[in-house]
Amino acid sequence: MVRRTRTGVHRPREFEINIEPSIREQIKADIKRFPRGTGGFAKFFHMIEMCYRQANGSKPIHADPKSTDCFVNPKIFSNVELTVIGHSMGTIVINELLPLFRELPVKDIVYMASAASVRDSKRSLAPLLSHQDNSKHSQKFYNLMLHPMNDAQELAVKGMAPSGSLLAWIDEMYENPRTMLDRTFGKWRNVRATKHIFRPESQKNMIFRVYNWRGPSAAYLRKKNNHCYPVTHGGFNDDRMAFWRPQFWGADRVGWRSPIVGNETLETKIKRCLN
């Protein structure tokens, strides 16, 4: 699973040497066009960056004319601000991409139940969140986490497997972390013990949010569609919670409109549950 996640940035074929010359030439051409990775995620971020540079009159990063093509009207990117959201192992991909594409106008970085290690997250995020007074784009980081009890008590295979969320399994069974910094960045227990490794100027731009605990009645509440925050690792993907809305992250932003859900708007529902 980790291998598949990381090859979204650098494909294994980039590092193959003993292959047919014709195929090797194709790989070299691909690397020349996408020098920061030929994986799907790296190519997508590269194309977005090219559109942004073209819209703002910046010079191409390198001379290959194909790399400067924008797949949409570049005017869309003239005043754009990007929000990057990763859930679980998706945060491993973001940790790989953010240092490679520093010029992108990323405004908000949101990690939901991050399966990335504390060490890798610090290496990726700290340079972005420090010394932002003189930077072109000022980033905010949000780390969203389950309540520790929900992390520990999540049931799998109807209780026939050991209890605990995927992050608990990674920390206790899959990865065998050697130090606290090698544990997952999406569990409050780990974050509480390690957040001091971020410099104070970085912590000013970071929000750590732990959602409330829900006990045995959580399944009933999910069935009734009456909850607004996650109680399981996969619960972050529930679009009824509107995880793309700043209110869900704990950001101080209001004013967006939303459809009616039951007899109240989704905005009112989220405010009622998150306040």
Folded structure, characterized:
- The protein is of the alpha/beta class.
- 36% of the residues lie in helices and 10% in strands.
- It is built from 12 helices and 6 strands.
- It has helices at 2-6, 21-33, 40-55, 90-97, 118-129, 148-153, 166-174, 188-194, 200-203, 218-223, 246-249, 266-274, and strands spanning 82-87, 106-112, 140-145, 206-210, 260-261, 264-265.
- The strands form 2 sheets. The protein has a 4-stranded parallel sheet, covered by helices on one side. A two-stranded antiparallel ribbon has the order 5-6.
- Helix 4 (90-97) packs across helix 5 (118-129).
- The protein is globular.
- The chain starts with a helix and ends with a helix.
Largest sheet: 4 strands, parallel
Any idea what the radius of gyration is? 21 Å
Strand order of the largest sheet: 1-2-3-4
Secondary-structure-derived class: alpha/beta
What gross morphology would you assign? Answer: globular
Q: How many individual β-strands?
A: 6
Could you give the distance between the termini?
Answer: 36 Å
Mean pLDDT: 81
Give the uncertain stretches in residue-range form: 220-226, 253-264
Total number of helical segments? 12
Helix content: 25-40%
Q: What's the order of the H and E elements?
A: HHHEHEHEHHHHEHHEEH
Strand content: 5-15%
A few lines on this structure:
By secondary structure, the chain is of the alpha/beta class. It is 36% helix and 10% strand.
Question: Which key phrases capture this entry?
Answer:
275 residues; alpha/beta; 4-stranded parallel beta sheet; 6 strands
Helix-strand blueprint:
Elements: H1 2-6, H2 21-33, H3 40-55, E1 82-87, H4 90-97, E2 106-112, H5 118-129, E3 140-145, H6 148-153, H7 166-174, H8 188-194, H9 200-203, E4 206-210, H10 218-223, H11 246-249, E5 260-261, E6 264-265, H12 266-274
Parallel strand pairs: 1-2, 2-3, 3-4
Antiparallel strand pairs: 5-6
Helix pairs in contact: 4-5
